[in-house]
């Protein structure tokens, strides 16, 4: 099935797909009851398409996903994009998907700090598990020369469907995106005309932290540094620091019906 074939209208859903949707809904009924808004034909079809209609594989994954969403209390929060997404599907009678732009402008290998890269890869894995078959296309722009090296690091955690949706655009990416997405849907920074106070709209730009925002100990005038002791911790080792003031931290678990209290005392 082509990428575009993953986004049928209600009339285009096949008899086989309808049968599998009904089967998944019945077998996942207990889990879906935790988050009723999730129980739509197109939501379930995403799972089926994302995992080759293998319901035995899908069930534990959908249970884990709904548990996460419930723990985050997503069902109690009004999320504009999420709500409008499902409303749009209901209104148009068509399975929708997000078109994602990844801008690698000013990217350098310096940001690929191994521990941070592991976190990023784990995040990609989690997002694919939580939102299967959600992305319709992924456009990568301003790719640096080392993109093949970077993509080789990321590719192992990408699902087959995600890989099929990734497109690396060339120098004509602005013209391509305007033709593909519409000028009115793109902020000025990327060649569109979408209205916003900032050229980048509400997109939080990544990149190197400006020097003026970086922490400098000498700027912290409130610290009495004469009694400070510098501690150097070597790699794969630890240093214990005794605190003079007793501290207590109470962590309450808000996930589930029960409440857990943990007390930590430092002296």
Textual characterization of the structure:
By secondary structure, the chain is α/β, with parallel strands linked by helices. It folds into three domains: 78 residues, no CATH class; 115 residues, Phosphatidylinositol Transfer Protein Sec14p, CATH 3.40.525.10; 47 residues, no CATH class. The protein is 36% helix and 10% strand. It has nine helices and five strands. The strands form two sheets. It has a three-stranded parallel beta sheet. Strands 4-5 form a two-stranded antiparallel ribbon. Strand 4 and strand 5 form a beta hairpin. This is CRAL/TRIO domain protein.
Layout of secondary structure:
Blueprint: H1 15-27, H2 29-32, H3 41-50, H4 55-71, H5 80-92, E1 98-103, H6 114-130, E2 135-141, H7 147-154, H8 160-165, E3 166-168, H9 173-181, E4 247-252, E5 261-266
Parallel strand pairs: 1-2, 2-3
Antiparallel strand pairs: 4-5
């Amino acid at each position: 099935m082509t990428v575009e074939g993953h986004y049928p209208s209600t009339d285009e859903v096949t008899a086989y797909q309808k049968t599998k949707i009904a089967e998944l809904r019945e077998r996942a009924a207990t889990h879906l009851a935790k988050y009723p808004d999730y129980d739509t034909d197109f939501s379930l079809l995403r799972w089926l398409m994302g995992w080759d209609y293998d319901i035995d594989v899908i069930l534990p994954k959908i249970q884990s996903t709904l548990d996460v969403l419930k723990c985050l209390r997503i069902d109690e929060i009004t999320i504009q994009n999420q709500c409008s997404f499902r409303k749009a599907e209901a209104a148009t009678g068509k399975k929708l998907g997000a078109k994602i732009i990844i801008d690698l402008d000013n990217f350098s290998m310096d940001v690929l700090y191994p521990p941070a890269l592991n976190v990023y890869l784990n995040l990609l894995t989690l997002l694919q598990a939580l939102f299967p078959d959600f992305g319709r296309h992924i456009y990568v722009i301003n790719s640096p020369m080392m993109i093949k090296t970077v993509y080789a690091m990321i590719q192992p955690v990408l699902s087959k469907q995600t890989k099929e949706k990734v497109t690396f655009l060339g120098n004509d990416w602005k013209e391509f995106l305007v033709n593909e997405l519409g000028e009115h849907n793109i902020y000025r920074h990327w060649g569109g005309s979408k209205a916003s106070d900032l050229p980048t709209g509400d997109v939080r730009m990544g990149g190197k932290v400006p020097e003026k925002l970086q922490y400098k100990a000498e700027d912290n005038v409130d610290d009495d540094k004469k009694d400070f002791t510098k501690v150097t911790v070597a790699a794969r080792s630890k240093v214990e620091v005794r605190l003079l003031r007793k501290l207590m931290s109470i962590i309450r678990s808000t996930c589930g019906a029960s409440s857990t209290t943990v007390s930590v005392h430092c002296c």
